[in-house]
Amino acid sequence: MSPKYIFVTGGVASSLGKGIIAASIGKLLQARGFNITIQKFDPYINIDPGTLNPYEHGECYVTEDGQETDLDLGHYERFTGIRTTAGNNVTTGKIYQSVIDKERRGDYLGKTVQVVPHIVDEIKRRMLLLGKKYHYDFVITEIGGTVGDIESQPFLEAIRQLKWELKGDTICVHLTYVPYLKAAGELKTKPTQHSVKELQSLGIQPDVLVLRAERELGAGLMKKVAGFCNVQPEAVVQSLDMPTIYEVPVRMQEQGLDAIILKQFNLPVGETPGLGPWRSFLDRRDKATETVKIGLVGKYDLQDAYKSILEALSQAGTYNDRRTKVEFINSEKLTENNVAEQLDAMDGIVICPGFGSRGTEGKLIAARYCREHDIPTFGICLGMQMMVIEFARNVLGYTDANSSEMDSKTAHNVIDLMEDQKTVKNMGGTMRLGAYECTLREGSRTAAIYGKSVVSERHRHRYEFNGDYADKYEQAGMHCVGQNPECGLVEIVEIPEKKWYIGTQFHPEYSSTVLHPHPLFLDFVKAAIEAKKH
Q1: Is 509 a catalytic residue?
Q2: Per-residue pLDDT, 532
């Protein structure tokens, strides 16, 4: 069959969970045997979120092919197990850059370049690209922002045109918010009606409505929404707050969202999939009563800044039959005087990734305390670098040891800028990005955790372990157990005599999914549970 295109739009407010709904639709269609992909179109003018502060847009997620993308692509991968690429995340910046490059080359033959048709045509080309190239059964496209935003209009115009051009091969799923007014004691549908009216004014009639709410919506209310919005009553479903986002596909399936979508495309519905492994995961999560407490030492007091780490820890907790309770520990406020008070209550510590010098001294204090008190510790990217610097200062005796990122004049640059980075001027998209192979040392703890000798993991950094110091570290007890086979760069360090003290230059959290949790996170949480017993 020809590829079918599902567009997911949002109204009333942002942060309603379009990404979770898109991922859930993908999961349900995938469970029926369809080959799917999911893409995100973001209306901001940045080329990608790589140069954005996490407070602006949350975590920057990295694909295997090295694209810095929106955090929603992490949801897509965690839910479905697919591997996204550069083509799965498109921004207004990318669209305009492409069109302007064509104009400079003379591709438009002297025509006046305009939003319509040129910008919209480029958006349509990108929307259809993956479906045409890889012949997916379904391409799910999430549109960032909300209906009514000025910057979203070209994307919505592209959808309007495609609905005509592709005839029965497109549908629009619109997610809106139904607020509860406590003073009136009522759920209010008027914001949804206005949102749909706004969408209709742009020439798009939604085919399915997903109503986001904190309280149960009655059948009468949903029928009312269907009537006012010109949507079939059975094509209105509700999305309530859940204990975990991983409940959402099951709740959507219970309301027949996947069946509704298939009917909209005039495709046979067939039997409802059992979602066995997924339900087993949820059952195991529900039955877990004991908790494991993990401290997250970082500088961004925002849960979306470390979204993939939080999800990887949650998944690892479930597979260890525990509820993972994560507590944020602000590295800017961590001192020698309060480190014991902050860290002693934790079963394990994650020293978070990041960029820049702010908060690094607190991470160094945490690394030392954990090493000296044998608390299970997982350092990721900059977190691993902090473990290396701390070890140099307090074990190797290089009291001025540092990263050249923090101190360009340090005499002991145990973390240094990669040689090919020293001539880089543009900040965006120029780091070491994407999946690289790593060879694991036979007999190391990390090799035992992975159960293999070669792995591939995703990177996002400019600075590396300085290999000139490797022998010193080895002799003192911090082993360089993972190396890139091509260039010899150190990827993993561990102190084998500790309960669990491992740092990775890469980001293992990016490849942890619901049905295939990452082995490092699984073993780290297991070690934290064991440490709690003693």
Answers
A1: yes
A2: 79
